[in-house]
Design brief:
This protein has about 200 residues and is of the alpha+beta class. The chain has one domain (about 25-185). Helices cover about 30% and strands about 20% of the residues. The protein has 6 helices and 5 strands, in the order αβααβααβαββ. It has helices at about 10-15, 35-45, 65-70, 90-95, 100-115, 155-165, and strands spanning about 25-30, 75-85, 115-125, 175-185, 195. Iron/sulfur cluster binds near residues 53 and 130.
Length: about 200
Amino acid sequence: MQTSEKQDITADIPAILSQYPVCQYAVLRPQEIPFSEKVRHICRTDCERYARSWSCPPAVGEVKACRERCLDYEHVLVFTTVAEVADAQVMTETLATRAGHEEVARALKGEFEGRGYRCLLLSTESCQICETCAYPNPCRHPDRAIPCVESYGILVTEIAENCGIEFYSDSHTVTWFGLLFYAWENGHNPPPGSYTM
Ligand code: SF4
């Protein structure tokens, strides 16, 4: 439900997140998010999704443009979900758990938008909604597709380290990251803080 009345999302964040299987989270300023051309270099040289997905480069734009897009928001909610798999080395099994994380990510975006915030949502890894991405033809689900965090040149490991968020990773555990940038159009400024659920 959209509202034009200013609401304190900071006070609501613990209650909102308690409804979802979020493992850890932190609230930062977009200026605290580290961007690097090195990440883009890895996309270009080491990732098979490069130039094959709307959620990846070059479709998302240059790193500088991605950073400017993120800086247009007041805060960013960094959050993780954790999935259990039989064998984390089996990429198809690992990637299959992304859908659950994205359901949570979309729901959180809906919660923020419902309180009158505009949002930009990023998620770990390339979009997997379609078996084969329509790129370079128009995206089939632009309302559901979520750009990849790394595609923006963002250093997720550095964010995790700075926020005290852990990368739970072993042969049976996968940690998924989400970044929800948000801004209240009328200048609402909740103070940044860091929390663990
Ligand atoms: S929804 Fe489909 S077409 Fe759009 S980015 Fe994802 S995989 Fe590609």
